[in-house]
Amino acid sequence: MKTDKIIIYGSQYGSAEKYAKELSKRIGYDCIRYEDVEDINAYSTIIYVGSLYAGGVQGMKKTLKKLSSVENKKIVIATVGLADPTDKENIESIRANMRRQLSGEVYEKAEIFHLRGAIDYSKISFLHKKMMGLLCKKAANLPEEKKNAEVRAMLETYNKQVDFIDFDTLKPILEMLCANNYTSVLNDPFRQHIVL
Ligand SMILES: Cc1cc2nc3c(=O)[nH]c(=O)nc-3n(C[C@H](O)[C@H](O)[C@H](O)COP(=O)(O)O)c2cc1C
User: Fold this and answer.
1) Count: domains in the chain
2) Which domain holds residue 178?
3) Which atom of ligand 1 is nearest to the CA of 14?
4) What is the CATH number of the domain that holds 22?
5) pTM score, two decimals?
6) pLDDT confidence bin for 196, thresholds 50/70/90
7) How would DSSP label each residue in the chain?
């Protein structure tokens, strides 16, 4: 069934995809890759889940810049990164970057959340490995007080396999969706399975 509510994800190695698919399972919206979006304007509720790469949210700018108007739209964006998403400074830095990637009206309209992802250095591309190697080399020489959450996460996880994916952290998103009636799930007798 085609609906006007959608979860879109931008993911290179699967963390953002896992969160997006779990959300889809819980609220019943369809879930698609950003590369497969045909017409973003066809949706009234858009939940975008994108992984962070050097501050950019995978696919977000490209996808949301095609929105012709935010009027009557509900926009939710969840970022997925390695740095601690409860760290105030990290949140500020992610949001400052998002502000540069989005139009003012989309940024103002969006409800924004931050989730923690995963990395497996044995599986990432040669280019990504090289990039992280260079960044870590530089970061390791920073004085301790200059090592923010992003730098610390990068150094602590370098060349390792770590997985911080935690579906319980979807709770604030689910609560917001329920509180704002963004979902018809609660009114749909066949979909009363929303899991908070
Ligand atoms: C080249 C590169 C750059 C990254 N940049 C960031 C970043 O700026 N902030 C962050 O929190 N995590 C960063 N990460 C970590 C990823 O966001 C994290 O591994 C995420 O879970 C990947 O999502 P995906 O599996 O959906 O692609 C970076 C990882 C790589 C390989």
Assistant:
1) 1
2) 5-120+162-191
3) 25
4) 3.40.50.360
5) 0.93
6) low
7) ---SEEEEEE-SSSHHHHHHHHHHHHH--EEEEGGG-S-GGG-SEEEEEEEEETTEETTHHHHHTT-S--TT-EEEEEEEESS-TT-HHHHHHHHHHHHHHS-HHHHHH-EEEEEE-EEETTTS-HHHHHHHHHHHHHHHTS-GGG--HHHHHHHHHTTSEEE---GGGGHHHHHHHHHTT--SGGG-GGGTT---
